[in-house]
Design brief:
Structural class: alpha+beta
Strand content: 5-15%
Distance between the termini: 32 Å
Largest sheet: 5 strands, antiparallel
Radius of gyration: 27 Å
Strand order of the largest sheet: 4-3-2-1-5
Order of helices and strands: HHHHEEEEE
Number of helices: 4
Number of strands: 5
Length: 161
């Protein structure tokens, strides 16, 4: 089952991209709804409401509790809006990243002739091609093994990014 945050492969790329694009609209609507709610809060808008030196002196303990409660509600609304804004930006960057790293289909012969492969986290020098996995040189003394379905692109010569 493919989810929004599944590893991108040649086979599931279109499905992951469609899920990511579909997640943008609800995130934008949620952000706009929470932004309107946050901006509509009744936070103090003038110094008279918050200035301790103003001429308004009534039951200060009750006024202070009321002001604290109002501030707490404002902060909750702001935190909800900020979380929705971050979620929206995350959805947009996910779609942008998916479009940027679209996989390039390859054949078995191209894979066997390749010296470099692109995975979801960059280009690697190809060391060995097995039936299920490929071994790549990743800067360690030993080769790292990755499943073949994680390969997004192959090149006959090494590519530096």
């Amino acid at each position: 089952m493919t989810t929004l945050h599944s590893k991108v492969t040649v086979d599931n790329y279109a499905e992951v991209l469609a899920l990511a694009e579909a997640a943008v609209k609800p995130a934008e609507e949620k952000r706009d709804r929470l932004k309107a709610r946050y901006e509509g809060r009744t936070a103090p808008r003038s110094e008279v409401e918050t200035d301790p030196a103003s001429a308004f002196r009534r039951k200060t303990a009750r006024q202070a509790r009321k002001a604290e409660t109002k501030f707490d509600l404002d902060m909750e609304a702001y935190k909800a809006y900020d979380a929705a804004e971050q979620e929206y930006k995350s959805c947009l960057s996910r779609v942008e990243w998916l479009r940027k790293v679209a996989p390039v289909p390859y054949t078995e012969e191209e894979l066997r002739a390749a010296t470099a492969v692109r995975l979801d986290d960059g280009w690697y020098r190809l060391v060995r091609v097995n039936k299920v996995t490929v071994s790549v040189e990743a800067g360690f003394p030993w080769p790292l093994k990755y499943k073949r379905d994680r390969i997004l692109e192959v090149r006959p010569r090494e590519v530096a990014e």
